[in-house]
Amino acid sequence: MSGYFLYHSIGMFPDKQQRIAAELNRFATAWGREDDGQWGYALEQQCKFLEGWRAILNAGEGSVAQAESVTSALYTILRGLPEATVRGGKVLIAADCFPSLHFLLAETIRRLGGELVTVPAAAGEAWVSDEQMLAAWDGNVRVAILTWVTSTSSHRSDVARLVAHGRQMGTLTGIDVTQGIGIARYDCQAIGADFTIGSSLKWLCGVSGAAVIHATQELIARCTPELRGWFSQQNPFSWDLDAFEFAPDARRFGNGTPSVLPAIGSLPGLDFVRDTGLEALAADNAAKGAELADWIAGSGLRLLSPADAAQRGGSLMVELPDSMDATEVVNSLRAQALHTDARGRVLRLSPGIVTGMEEVTRLTECLSSMLGQKAEV
Ligand SMILES: Cc1ncc(COP(=O)(O)O)c(C=O)c1O
Fold this sequence. Notes:
seven-stranded mixed β-sheet; binds pyridoxal-5'-phosphate; Aspartate Aminotransferase, domain 1; 41% helix; Aspartate Aminotransferase, domain 2; alpha/beta; 377 residues; 12 helices; four-stranded antiparallel β-sheet
């Protein structure tokens, strides 16, 4: 058990190093063997990765594809939609989205002839509420990008409710599930978003380069991605220059030679989450989160996450007072083998399965002592 509180950044699980090393070693063996089995092996492993995600999302066959990052997943979808989808209309996103997606949208939506509408948090609030999203969401919103669980407050949206509103407005809705997947249940068929994007890096304990796109059959049929290549086809070896044809399923979101290594490196993490079970992982996180929330409530620090555990993901964010330097706080916790991070004055705490309950207590004691010291100055 350790003082690791960084699941919002990189997920951990017991024996992670050995299990990833063993997986990559199997890859190295197949890849270095002087025969013709390399791609057969590698593509089979990528298929296992996609099947793992498909189970987690409860997604239909052929509806999930790998992407390099969540940002590139969104780009692939946006530049695959019929051009009239966005032109002259609005694209809605909350101000507490992951900034990389906003950087992408700001330029792409301008080029597509649409207007990007960024819904702000209410004055003094740490996250954009579902009510604020709904208030800004009218019939001219062509595409809405929702963040299931945010990276700055761990606020969990009621995405099913938002998607249902989107359907009434004729909006195409996509959900970024990166911060929630692997710690809370997400059923893409029950929620009904047109597309879902996410990475394997956080609670799913994977590696970078292993993001995914899930799209409904209807959306897949409508999308003709601009970024395309031989691996967007049903048969990648169809090389007739005049006979390019998109695969009928999510494989059309592929382009050149697939990046199999991140998918393979992510298999041990996906297996760990499946074998341990989401409910067990969520219960473990909830117990540690409750301990942190109790301490925060009595600490005088401002909680920047919802106080109601049902409305948050696996993290708790607190605002450090002006009198404390966030870098110093993170550094001095690190010196005591307690690993956290800060965004501005927001201290982010995400305990997971490797985090010891006694380390949670030790973290609160260290923070109490730092706050006490500051109060005395
Ligand atoms: C909510 C959310 N979305 C997306 C990402 C990552 O996006 P990308 O894979 O494009 O770097 C993160 C990473 O922290 C995140 O917290």
